[in-house]
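Hi there,

I know you've been waiting on this one. I reran it after we fixed the sequence typo, so this is the corrected version. Both the input and the resulting structure follow.
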Amino acid sequence: MRIGVLAGRVGVTPKAVRYYEQVGLLPPARRTPSGYRDYTEEDAARLEFIRSAKALGLTLDEIREVLAFRDRGRAPCPYVLQVIEAKVEEIERRIRGLRLLAADLRRLRQLATRLPRQRIAARARFCHLLENEKLRRAARDPIRRAGPRRAPAADRPP
């Protein structure tokens, strides 16, 4: 089958097919006498695997390793399990970080709403809310999380 048919069938672009071939994820396609790439059902299955693995968050290097196991006649599943475990840990770490960031941003928003609008607009080169170290520190300070919510002394109206 030609590249456009393969790409459409699997749900990728012809450019992606050529790229996967270039980086070694797909074997070089046979060529027709007129020079067109000619792909097989095996190529389609391999490309579907690549697309599915990418959708699960595997990198192209990880996918290449899985395919290399299979090409050598070895089961890649133990390697895939290690990759999955590492990905789950990474995702959970990122979720924790995003939750902390969301909490910091909520506190910054709360502190910012207590500042007079004139002081917010006039006190910074770009944006007072992002440049004021005391305000940013107060938003991140875990002690202030449990205590009363007030703007830092330097940012309170006189």
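Quick highlight: The domain at 3-75 is CATH 1.10.1660.10 (Multidrug-efflux Transporter Regulator; Chain: A; Domain 2).

Best,
R. S.
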